[in-house]
Amino acid sequence: MDAIKQIVAKAGIVDLTYLDSPQGEMYLKIVVASLAVGAALALYLGTASASAPKKILATPELTLSTTEPHAMLPTITDWHRMKLVDKTALSHNTNLYVFEIPRPTGHIKGVHPDPVLGLPIGQHISVSAEIDGKNIVRSYTPTTLDGEDPGRFHLLVKAYEKGNISRYLSLLTVGQEVKVKGPKGKFKYTSDLADHFLMIAGGTGITPMYQIIKASLADESDDTQLRLIYANVNEDDILLRKELDDLQARSNGRFQVYYVLNNAPSNWTGGQGFITRASIEQHMPVGGVDARGKVLMCGPPPMMNAMKGHLEGIGYPKPNTISRLEDQVFLF
Ligand SMILES: Cc1cc2nc3c(=O)[nH]c(=O)nc-3n(C[C@H](O)[C@H](O)[C@H](O)COP(=O)(O)OP(=O)(O)OC[C@H]3O[C@@H](n4cnc5c(N)ncnc54)[C@H](O)[C@@H]3O)c2cc1C
Question: For ligand 1, is residue 169 a contact (CB within 6 Å)?
């Protein structure tokens, strides 16, 4: 208070004798209170302007902040060109493709995070190409979550000899671009969607499950129980096996995977042949067919048809032709 008294007196606003009087004391209290309010206001305005999203001048519809990355696929209406930056063979017919998400153009001052696809967990993208004069479009689920590989996303795609887009992708070389659009899909994972999930996947049908499992386990507040039955022809065909095993080991029992092989080697401890009703019953989550549990399925149509039959036998409802988020049995 003394320091403020000296400053006020020095400024020549009032003299020291007045400040020592009862009226002067009241005057000083008002000065101190005004200074406090002013400082608080300055602090608030400073913080607010520092956290406000920064507009990019060249593309006014785009807002970027230093904390929120730009989502590349905000709508399903636009096609975006994405450059292939890496391609690795994971098995004799499946490649991992890494695509670069283009940075938005404009004046971006300072550091800003790389863009992300902005896909809700469990949704997919469309990839399009002109093949023999026809525009072909197919769906693919990225195996990376937003920001996991900054500025890039990964696709895991099995190539079919007579396939259109899968073959087109397998012939792509690093540096070439593909047309991508999204988000697409009715499913959107959130930690409160169900208490437990039974996931049944075949071959590349693992991709949506992998995305959901990763997102769920990365969230420490999520206690959803996850059980995966994953079918393949041969042991070499099992995709993301190390990643799935690592996730299981680090999940504190929240996630369990059971592999099933059509052609199992002699020392195989998982399932053999096709997925049976008995193996589903053995590996489904505790709680079974209760209302707080959901089933997610993705795989070749003949396998999916067989699974629908098994699930109905266990007591699950018949899935809708086009699945909706609220369905108990959801087919991707
Ligand atoms: C929501 C969703 C997500 C998907 N995510 C992925 C993913 O992450 N990775 C991935 O690899 N695939 C994924 N798929 C499958 C993908 O969309 C294509 O169906 C697949 O790549 C084949 O497309 P294509 O254009 O190469 O073949 P198409 O032109 O559709 O088929 C041409 C020929 O290829 C062969 N063929 C195609 N599909 C099969 C099959 N399943 N089994 C046997 N032969 C076949 C047949 O000979 C067929 O006649 C997903 C599908 C959906 C619906």
Answer: no
Q: Which two tokens stand for residue 25?
A: 């004391």
Nearest atom in ligand 1 to the alpha carbon of residue 155 is 8
Segment 174-183, tens digit of pLDDT: 999 999 999 9
Q: What distance in angstroms lies between residue 178's CA and the mean position of ligand 1's atoms? A: 17
Q: Whose CA is nearest to atom 32 of ligand 1?
A: 163
pLDDT per residue as tens digits for the range 245-275: 999 999 999 999 999 999 999 999 999 999 9
Of 170, 179, 204, 298, the one to substitute when testing ligand 1's pocket (max ligand atoms within 8 A of C-beta) is 204
Task: Evaluate the CA torsion angle 236, 240, 246, 252 in order and state its sign.
Answer: negative
**Residue range 206-212: mean pLDDT, rounded:** 97
The answer, as to whether pTM is greater than 0.70, is: yes
Q: DSSP string spanning 234-275?
A: SGGG-TTHHHHHHHHHTTTTSEEEEEEESS--TT--SEESS-
- Strands (E) located in the chain: 54-55, 63-64, 80-89, 94-100, 124-131, 134-140, 152-158, 177-184, 196-202, 225-232, 255-261, 271-272, 293-298, 329-331
Is 167's C-beta closer than 6 angstroms to any atom of ligand 1? yes
Terminus-to-terminus CA distance in the chain, angstroms?
70
Q: What is the structure's pLDDT at 113? A: 63
Q: Which residues are marked as active site?
A: 124, 140-141, 298
